[in-house]
Amino acid sequence: MLANPRSLIRPALALFLLGVAGVAANACSGKTASGTSPNGGSSSGDGGGTSTNNPACPDTDPGDQKACSKDGLLCEYGGDFNPLCNIVRVCSGTRWGMSTTYANRPECPSTPPAVQPNPSECAPTRATVPEGEACTKAADAAGTTCSYDGATCTCGSFCPSYPVAQRDCDTDAGVTENCCDRSKVTWNCFDGPAFCKTPRPRVGSACTTEGESCALTEPGECGQPILRCDKGVWNVPNVGCPISTAKAKREIAYVDPEGTERLHDQLMSTRLATYRYKSPAPEGMGGSDARHLGFIIEDMPEGSAAVLPSRDRVDLYGYTSMTVASLQHQQREIDELKAELEKLRRENAALKPRKR
Predict the structure, then answer these.
(1) CB 165 within 8 Å of CB 159
(2) In the chain, what are the domain boundaries?
(3) Which of 22, 15, 23 is nearest to 324 (CA)?
């Protein structure tokens, strides 16, 4: 008996929902232990507009997998204003992990963000922008953009594309609800914390105001890179969209059907577990008493796309992409089953006795 094709997709779809995570960040400013504020410190620091490293950090980049002695120590190396354009390493156990940032991003090298002069059509402050209300722009123009410290507002047609894009409204096709009307021109704003001032704190340097942050770039639809005071040190939390542009990548090789089958098999063999974090629990995880569902890194095979090479954190982008590969593989199986079923139907119809 042929399996129900719809039942094949359920396991991968369930894991796909588990693998997708969103992170939001807000708030602004804060002071380092030395009194330097990310929103208005002294003019000292290196050429990239950054202050000094944590004193426990080596003077130069120690390199991947070299020995270290302070588990969890974060150190930044490089002179760019945006730490995502520099090398940021974490001491994981007794070894330095691979850099958690990627200097080949399209925005690197970067310049410190600043509030730009606004055209006369802009409201004087972010609070007075009539967000959502109609505005006027020329048909062939990109639309007026207004810059504020912590916000960017634009007059134009905006259809959200993250995390899921809406379909365009089409009255001729009867699509008038749960759709995006591109003919509607309104004020739309992206908000975030205030910009970091130069010199900004180094990733891993000490801070005193837990949770306070500043922005490293202008805000966008799915967030922006920020510096945040996390457990007494400045860090760059994982916010925003994954980098998928070809401009930021090299050695691009597309996965063939055999590759998607291997990823499917690997995903199907993933052992899920429920667990509680040891105290103190990671920020945003509901404390040590909250129970979670997920997999254990030590259970995953070496080279798994769901785990960073340092094997100290989950690669959510890789994990989600594995589910896409699994869905593609299962869809091929479903298509093959449907074709086989249709063939059997035709053969069965041919075997039916003809009416006399």
Answers:
(1) yes
(2) 253-336
(3) 15
Residue 292 makes CB contacts below 8 A (sequence gap 6+) with 274, 275, 276, 277, 285, 286
CA 271 distance to own-chain centroid: 25
Phi, psi of 349, rounded to the nearest 5 degrees? -65, -35
Cα–Cα distance, 260 to 321 (Å, whole number): 10
Determine phi and psi for 352, rounding to 5 degrees. -65, 135
Helix, strand, coil share of the chain (percent; to 5)? 20, 20, 60
Here the tokens at position 84 are: 């995502």
Q: What's the pLDDT score for residue 246?
A: 76
d(C-alpha 177, C-alpha 163), whole Å: 19
User: What would the pLDDT profile of 136-154 be if each residue is shown by its tens digit?
Assistant: 876 556 678 999 998 999 9
Residue among 196, 208, 202 nearest 89 (CA): 202
Q: Counting Cβ atoms within 10 Å, is residue 324 exposed (0-12), middle (13-18) or buried (19+)?
A: middle
CA distance 242 to 239: 9
Euclidean distance between CA atoms 142 and 326, whole angstroms: 40
Contact indicator for 78, 200 with CB cutoff of 8 Å: no
pLDDT digits over 43-64, tens only?
Answer: 233 434 556 788 999 999 998 8
What span, in angstroms and rounded, lies between the C-alpha atoms of 81 and 317? 25
Residue 49: which of 213, 214, 244, 202 has the closest Cα? 202
